[in-house]
Amino acid sequence: MRTLHQVAASEIAVIPYYLESCQQHGLQYRINQYERAEPLGAQCGNCHTIVWITGRSDPILFKEAPNNQESYHDHNRRFLKFLPACPHCHQQAYDLFINNITLKRFEDGNPFPQEFYGVDEEMSAKVKDIPVWWYGDEAEAKRLNLHFL
After folding, report:
1. Which residues form the domain of 91?
2. Which helix (H) or strand (E) segment is 143 a member of?
3. What's the domain count of the chain?
């Protein structure tokens, strides 16, 4: 059974950073797509908290389906709908599916700035490893050797 836990961002291949000239809006997150964790996530439309999953075990996202755009968006909508309530605001308000190419909102809800689309972001400062919310089961936690905070 999957449950919510806090883990260090680095344990699930998530890289927190401040975007140059946008630090006032809070953190952004980059995914290290070359790690075995293979993180994906959902961002709450209410409080902008991100809940991350890892691996390819999600029964909704990785269910066999026709290879078309409609099916892709349907899987994403269903994934967002079936996550547990947001651990921060306790609402079921996820509205943004996150993968390695999704532009996430900042912590304060501001959108990613248009002028940065399609270019490498400038990280203003390294951020120490921070706790993030992870939704997964015991088998996945063991596979990744996660340490719950």
Report:
1. 3-144
2. helix 138-144
3. 1
Query: Quick check: 14 and 39 in contact, CB under 8 A?
Result: yes
For the chain, give the longest Cα–Cα distance: 42
Cα angle value 105/54/15 (rounded, 5°): 45
Can you give the length of the chain in residues?
A: 149
Residue 3: count of CB within 10 angstroms of its CB: 12
For the entire predicted model, the pTM comes to 0.89
Q: Is residue 64 part of a domain?
A: yes
Measured distance CA(119)–CA(21) in Å, rounded:
15
**CA-to-CA distance for 16 and 122, rounded, in angstroms?**
13
Q: Residues 133-149: pLDDT tens digits?
A: 999 999 999 999 999 99
CB 46, CB 93: distance < 8 Å: yes
